[in-house]
Specification:
Layout lengths: L1 E3 L2 E7 L8 E6 L4 E6 L12 H4 L7 H7 L5 E2 L11 E2 L2 H19 L4 E5 L5 H15 L4 E3 L6 H10 L17 E5 L3 H4 L1 H13 L4 E5 L5 H4 L3 E3 L6 H14 L5 H7 E2 L1 H8 L4 H8 L3 H13 L3 E5 L1 H4 L4 H15 L8 E4 L6 H6 L6 E2 L3 E2 L3 H11 L12 H9 L5 E5 L3 H4 L3 H10 L2 E6 L12 E4 L8 E4 L4 E5 L12 H16 L12 H11 L12 H7 L2 E2 L26 E2 L18 E6 L26 E3 L1 H6 L7 E5 L4 E8 L7 E5 L7 E2 L31 E7 L4 E9 L4 H12 L4 E9 L2 E10 L5 H10 L7 E6 L4 E9 L5 E9 L5 H9 L28 E3 L4 E2 H8 L6 H12 L9 H9 L2
Parallel strand pairs: 7-8, 7-17, 9-10, 9-13, 10-11, 12-23, 13-14, 17-18, 18-19, 24-28, 25-27
Antiparallel strand pairs: 1-2, 2-3, 3-4, 5-6, 5-19, 15-16, 20-21, 21-22, 24-30, 25-28, 26-27, 26-30, 29-32, 31-33, 31-36, 32-33, 34-35, 35-36, 37-38
């Protein structure tokens, strides 16, 4: 940390995806002033994506006051879901919790409690929670949202290579000759890695990039070969490629014989995966299948990147293992530029796996089912034993809560009331639980509303500990500013509660939690890894401070970790050999049929993160995807005479949600896509039964993989009907920074009073606006609209009003003056006829003068004023460059695609900062 004037800098790690980018936090020791990429961090070398580069905007004091949990609160008697919690001290809260836990365990046993934690916790947090559940309480009912993210990757590695360890590293992106990306829109989900891919392709024009994805995403559009396979056919694709590799004699027989086992059985299986069968199954051409196989097999170094498209599946383990089979069969592993490389979704899903923070694991990649492993952990913790009964995994845990088997549920740093599949069951479980504890930084999550006990936790810029990224690299997370309010570190809360609970469960015995700080926890975790595949006994906080992030394994006496695993062909299995997995293609768990003819896929937006509890507080991050929608193929929309903006009722066998339609050339016929982020906090309404709609995950499928227990979130069957909601309403306003998020939170309670409604932010930097959109069968009551408009500041004598009550049309316009006295729009509400929204919203967001518009502001007309031109969506968030800006500039440029891109960047700056928009810029150039 250095001190320059009153400004200081602290190195930390980005709290978003598993790339693990280093950040430098600029602050004054009390508040965050800015953030930039750490040029010395080997994951990103100073680069940050749109989410990382706006981190400082999520930590502004006025924002924090509106959304952070500031102190503990609890309700000891739940009369109804609306019974308010009362503020409490930490000591009072711990005492209450310990009493309830002890009584419940005495009456119903230790398995009557469960912990659902998060891949966004630090390793130290994870370790303590794992010990609290399995060591002190004696239950394996502890699982994590990583179950929704990476458990199939874990199972795939263990089934084939013997241990949960990605064998490759980021440097391999620059060294491979063929890059095979499967089930990952890397350009959106891991933007900084995609920058490294762009660099590698520029340095090596011969590098071949293959992308297998049902959607033609920004990643797929940059590929040399896009395999637009049908959803769920990945195993058939990989087995078909292996069939061709065998036929073309492109397998490495010597490697197979020396370093693997089980190939004969797999060879018999893939014999049936002929090119024509696979092409028909996957919906691709035989030629493209053969090209992919030959590129992969003939390459001197083939690297595979994969993520949720493989993992979030009822056959996710088979998908992962079948891809790994390709690498083992060709010897494409354990050497530079090669290997099967799973991309981690969350910032510390890897760290959670390392400490065994899941229902079937123990510390240091030990298996709960192994008696020797249980004995080793018991000895380390100073206990006679740890429980052997398997714990409930994520979906199973909420099933058990709903059935009354689990009485107490402790949720930390995750939002299952938005992110879990089959949301109706999740909400029913949270209502039924006898006690719900939510440990959270943000008060605005859907899950926080169910908390009987709400515990304030620290968040990024306040936390202290470590995380592990996708390439097994451990980085420090350092605090730059004090904890907000009375918030405490996640590990600290667990330790302090454990001390109180020990007095009832282990009176008179030494504590199991002798941890004065995060480093002491990490040191115990380090000892648990001794002799294991992830041995870090040669690592220390001091090393991380002095030498920077380090990869495991790094054993005692070594000065650096291993960049690549299995270079000697020896694997952590009983025989020392890798095992081929006999993967067979199985049709999807819920195929489309006559009643539910569309296949729903979910995935990430470029500029949002998970349930948006953090990114959703920054208006700027809505610019690229301003509102919820359901995307579908243009031909599917045309055949039904649907157009962009039409409201569609999307229904699966589990739930229903109304969403605006949006045509997308990325989608194949019969497929639809909804971003995973749109939960009930941002889009809702009420269903025909009067129950609130619960967002995208009210539609998704809870069936899970038999090995990994990871649920199928990628492939649900749905039907679409046009929602006949003739009455429309939209209201939007600039709001003071100290009030915008509080207003948005207040408006969320109004969403379910309409058949359809959404509420989002807009803005730039520190300027924030709120937009609410709604639709109904008939006009909403004037009282409801008055409440909404009062929240948005549409009250008082300076508000212009137009009312046509007979036709149900109303209009509210508020004009303010900017700093130089120019009259501009500050708030607008339109009901009934909302056609003028198109240009009124542009006038307001662009802060254009309305000096000459006069009565035009009140006329119900879709015709904009003379000279008006819509900017279109924002493509470059860093410099606020719109689609229209770019198209107009491109019309003036000429040259090769690369030359045009360089000229465009020079003129408009787009793509010159974080680079997240570069794939879209290339697509726009290619379409000229």
């Amino acid at each position: 940390m250095t001190n320059v004037s009153h400004s200081q800098e602290t190195k930390a790690t980005c709290p978003y995806c598993g790339v693990g980018c280093g950040v430098i936090i600029e602050h004054d020791a009390q508040q965050v002033l800015g953030v930039r990429g750490d040029p010395d961090h080997p994951a990103n070398f100073g680069r940050l994506c749109t989410k990382g580069s706006t981190l400082h905007l999520t930590a502004q004091p006025m924002l924090q006051q509106q959304v952070r949990v500031a102190q503990p609160s609890l309700r000891k008697t739940r009369l109804s879901a609306d019974t308010p919690r009362q503020p409490a001290s930490w000591d009072e809260t711990y005492a209450y919790l310990a009493d309830v836990f002890a009584a419940t365990i005495r009456e119903h046993g230790p398995d009557s409690v469960g912990f659902y934690i998060s891949g966004q916790l630090l390793t130290e947090d994870y370790y303590v929670f794992n010990k609290l559940a399995k060591g002190l309480i004696g239950t394996n009912n502890i699982d994590t949202n990583s179950r929704l993210c990476m458990s199939s990757a874990v199972a795939g590695y263990k089934q084939t290579l013997g241990a949960d360890a990605p064998p490759a590293c980021y440097e391999d992106l620059a060294l491979c000759e063929t890059l095979f990306i499967v089930g990952s829109n890397t350009a959106f989900a891991h933007p900084i890695l995609f920058r490294r891919i762009e660099d590698a392709r520029k340095a090596n024009p011969n590098l071949k990039m293959i992308v297998a994805d049902p959607r033609r995403t920004d990643t797929a559009q940059q590929a040399d070969l896009h395999l637009a396979i049908q959803p769920g056919t990945d195993v058939a694709l990989f087995n078909g490629m292996l069939h061709i590799l065998l036929w073309e004699d492109l397998v490495d027989t010597a490697y197979i014989e020396s370093h693997t086992e089980g190939f004969a059985e797999l060879k018999r299986i893939v014999r049936d995966y002929t090119p024509q069968f696979v092409a028909d199954t996957c919906g691709i051409s035989v030629g493209d299948l053969q090209k992919a196989a030959l590129w992969f097999g003939q390459s001197k170094a083939s690297l595979s990147l994969y993520c949720q498209g493989l993992n979030q599946s009822s056959v996710g383990t088979a998908k992962n293992a079948a891809l790994i089979n390709l690498h083992l069969a060709t010897g494409q592993i354990g050497k530079p530029g090669a290997g099967p490389f799973s991309l981690t979704g969350q910032p510390n899903a890897m760290g959670g796996r390392e400490v065994g923070g899941m229902a079937n694991l123990l510390s240091a990649h030990r298996d709960l089912a192994n008696p020797e492993h249980r004995a080793e952990v018991a000895a380390l913790w100073g206990l006679p034993s740890v429980p052997e009964k398997p714990g409930k995994t994520a979906v199973e845990m909420f099933d058990a809560v709903e059935k009354g088997e689990i009485k107490i549920l402790w949720i930390a740093c995750t939002n299952p009331a938005q992110s879990m599949p089959n949301q109706s069951l999740i909400h029913a479980a949270l209502k039924k639980a006898e006690l719900v504890i939510v440990q959270e930084a943000y008060s605005t999550t859907a899950t926080a509303q169910y908390a009987d006990v709400l515990l304030p936790a620290t968040t990024w810029a306040e936390k202290d500990g470590t995380v592990t990224n996708s390439e097994r690299r451990i980085s420090r997370v350092r605090p730059a500013i004090p904890a907000f309010g009375d918030a405490r570190h996640d590990w600290q809360i667990a330790v302090e509660f454990a001390h109180v609970l020990e007095q009832q469960l282990r009176p008179g015995l030494p504590t199991l939690f002798p941890y004065p700080n995060a480093e002491s926890i990490w040191n115990e975790h380090r000892e648990s890894t001794r002799g294991r595949d992830l041995d870090i006994t040669g690592m220390s906080y001091h090393m991380l401070e002095q030498q920077g992030p380090q990869q495991w394994p790094l054993t005692t006496g070594e000065s650096s970790g291993k960049a690549r695993l299995y270079e000697d062909g020896v694997f952590p299995t009983a025989s020392g050999k890798a095992k081929f997995f006999p993967a067979q293609y199985q049709p999807v768990a819920e195929p489309a049929d006559a009643r539910y003819p569309f296949r729903l896929n979910t995935g990430r937006l470029r500029d949002q993160w998970h349930g948006m509890s953090r990114t959703g507080t920054v208006g700027q991050l809505y610019s690229h995807a301003p509102e919820p929608c359901i995307q579908m193929a243009p031909g599917d929309m045309a055949r039904r005479a649907w157009k962009d903006g039409d409201l569609l009722q999307v229904t699966s066998r589990r739930g229903t949600q109304i969403l605006p339609a949006q045509a997308s050339a990325e989608l194949q016929p019969g497929q639809v896509f909804v971003a995973m982020h749109w939960g009930a906090e941002f889009v809702s309404g009420h269903t025909g039964s009067g129950q609130p709609a619960l967002g995208v995950n009210s539609l998704t499928l809870p069936v899970f993989d038999a090995y990994s227990k990871q649920p199928e979130l990628k492939n649900a069957a749905v039907k679409l009907l046009k929602a006949e909601l003739p009455w429309r309403y939209v209201a939007f306003a600039w709001l003071p920074q100290y009030a915008a998020l509080a207003v948005q939170a207040a408006l969320r309670s109004k969403l379910a009073q309409f058949p359809y409604a959404s509420c989002v932010l807009f803005g730039r930097e520190k300027q924030t606006g709120v937009l609410l959109r709604a639709a109904g069968y008939e006009a909403a009551t004037s009282e409801l609209l008055a409440e909404i408009e009062a929240q948005l500041g549409l009250v008082g004598g300076d508000v212009m009003k137009y009312d046509d009550r007979k036709r149900g049309h109303t209009r509210r316009i508020k004009v303010s003056r900017n700093v130089d006295g120019t009259p501009i729009l500050s708030a607008v509400a339109l009901a009934g006829d909302i056609s003028a929204e198109v240009w009124l919203k542009e006038y307001l967001q662009g802060e254009q003068s309305v000096q000459t518009l006069g009565r035009l502001l009140l006329l119900p007309s879709a015709t904009p004023p003379a000279g008006f031109q819509a900017r279109g969506k924002i493509v470059c968030n860093c410099f606020n460059v719109s689609e229209t800006d770019i198209q107009q500039t491109l019309a003036t440029l000429s040259g090769s695609a690369d030359e045009v891109l360089s000229l465009l960047q020079a003129k408009k700056q787009c793509g010159t900062n974080c680079g997240s928009c570069v794939p879209e810029l290339k697509r726009m150039i290619a379409s000229l």
